[in-house]
Amino acid sequence: MKRFLLPLLLPAVAVMTAYAGSSSINWKKTYPVAAAEAKSSGKLMMIDFYTDWCGWCKKLDADTYPADAVVKQSDKFVSIKLNAEKDADGIRLAKKFGINGYPTILFLDSNETLAYKVVGYEPAKDFADSMVKAATIRQDSARFKAALKANPNDFEGLVGMAGIEASMGNADAAAKDVDLAAKSVTGTNRGKLLTAYNNVGDGYQNTNQYDKAIPYFSKAIVAGFDDQSAYARISIAVCYASTGKIASAKPFLQDLLKMDKAPKEYVDQAKDMLKQLGN
């Protein structure tokens, strides 16, 4: 879901288990092997950049990668894990793509062109959704661009491109798209707009522009849209906590816990984060 900058402490036994290969994802052993397979198959590479000291990397290994939905989606990619501080290719690619937070998962083609990016830990459901987006992003981008060429105000094209631009690190472009889409929103497509607001917030947060991220997350908090609202609340809390504003972060986590229908994964994360912040 989000990039947590707070340290995550895991028991030593759990850490060892996480790296003992419990996942059924077919991780390639070397980058050259992964790149060659990506080239021959036409698949994107799914590259997990991690470090030995990263607690959230270990939680990703322990909780997210073994999930059935994630393993199923992994067949669409050529997967490899690279230590961003020890592996030569990990160091090179982390520098090339400006990676400074872990875990970061990049989806690259065989020419090392970025297609999609996930910054930080995501629970299984969210990560599986990210994988679905990554698998079709090249086709989706072409479709959205064609729709906007025919009609620059096309709602589906605008919210679609906002998500893609945000995932590529072009948050300002994504913000322009979603602001334009908001002018033609209707009751039937409001949920898509709120998701797009969260996507823009992610784009800004992933580049540490928290002051720009928070207003877009705030727009996604709307009664009756529990998934988007819960995601936005925990995201705002992470933005505040990442800049040391603990007192500002806690109310959003507490409000999330008061929701009647907040998704369980967000409730669990809010509880964990409140514990880390000292309740």
Q: What series of H and E elements makes up the topology? A: HEHEHHEHEEHHHHHHHH
Please give the number of β-strands. Answer: 5
Based on the coordinates given, report the CATH architecture of the largest domain: Alpha Horseshoe
Please, what is the average pLDDT? 89
> Would you identify the CATH H-level superfamily of the largest domain?
Tetratricopeptide repeat domain
The percent range for strand residues is 5-15%
Total count of domains: 2
Give the strand order of the largest sheet, numbering strands 1, 2, ... along the chain. 1-3-2-4-5
Assign an overall shape: globular
Describe the fold and architecture.
The structure is a single chain. This protein has 2 domains: 12-131, Glutaredoxin; 137-276, Serine Threonine Protein Phosphatase 5, Tetratricopeptide repeat, CATH 1.25.40. The protein contains 13 helices and 5 strands. The chain has helices at residues 12-18, 31-41, 55-64, 68-74, 88-96, 124-150, 155-167, 171-181, 190-205, 210-219, 226-242, 246-258, 264-276, and strands at 27-28, 44-50, 77-83, 104-108, 114-119. It has a 5-stranded mixed sheet with strand order 1-3-2-4-5, sandwiched between helices. The relative contact order is 0.10.
